[in-house]
Specification:
This protein is of the alpha/beta class. The protein is elongated.
């Protein structure tokens, strides 16, 4: 009769060991690196700043554009032809719907066809993004722990460089990474398998490290998981912190 309780006790004694083995098994910097999407993961749009840039930089032209756009929209709804300003807005909307990962270069092509003088305004608005709450602290903590971090974005190189200059407090911890060339044929971008393969070829060719990839787009996460990465769908900094801890990264 004594044998059975002893068996139960021996089994119970192994449970804390097993649990602690899962919870405290560290993902070491030597075996793991992190890849970050940029928009809506590290940064978010600063709408008031964007509006202020448009009004200030475009000046009188901004009033003209918004006035003409309103007129053309009403005319179009009443059966009139599509004006050039309305066409620009509709083309931009189509690009957003058709290719959510479109680069600034692709938007610039549309804007330049409408009015090339607006390109500097467009460039400045493209940099009007601010860090998402909690992300600068998380990125810094990961750096202090010794983890390599890189960017893995569908942004063009110029857009990304502008953000690096504007927010060094965030991007100084990232060791380069992958951007997109809109003039490449074909364009290689997420969630194409070729994008993740290119990342591995540049930074993890021998697959010696596990790459933890964070993005706000579920299709990009699926692509990463199918390309020997571990994908995390971004919701907010705190949920991301918990997910990383669950993967063995010893965050606070």
């Amino acid at each position: 009769m004594l044998f059975r309780p002893l068996v139960y006790l021996s089994l119970l004694a192994t449970i804390p060991f097993c649990i602690s083995g899962v919870e405290f098994q560290k993902a070491l910097p030597e075996t793991v690196e992190l890849a970050w999407d940029c928009h809506q993961v590290l940064i978010k749009p600063n709408i008031p700043e964007m509006a202020a840039i448009f009004i200030k930089k475009a000046g009188i032209k901004s009033i003209k554009i918004t006035t003409v756009l309103g007129y053309e929209y009403v005319r179009y709804c009443l059966g009139g032809c599509e004006g050039t300003t309305l066409k620009l807005m509709r083309d931009i909307h189509k690009l957003v719907k058709r290719q959510p990962g479109a680069t600034g270069q692709e938007y610039d092509l549309l804007i330049a066809a409408y009015d090339e003088s607006l390109l500097p305004v467009s460039r400045e608005m493209a940099a009007a993004w601010v860090p998402i709450k909690g992300m600068p602290e998380l990125i810094k903590e990961l750096d202090e722990l010794g983890y390599t971090q890189r960017i893995a974005t569908n942004m063009g190189a110029v857009d990304y460089e502008d953000l690096v200059k504007k927010h060094p407090e965030l991007f100084k911890y990232l060791k380069g990474g992958l951007t997109v060339d809109a003039f490449e044929d074909p364009v290689v971008r997420k969630p194409d398998a070729a994008y993740y393969d290119r990342y591995h070829e540049r930074y993890n060719n021998d697959r010696a490290k596990k790459v933890i990839f964070t993005d706000d787009n579920k299709h990009n996460i699926v692509g990463a998981n199918q390309s020997e990465m571990t994908g995390i769908l971004f919701k907010d900094a705190q949920k991301l912190r918990e997910a990383l801890k669950g993967l063995g990264i010893p965050l606070k």
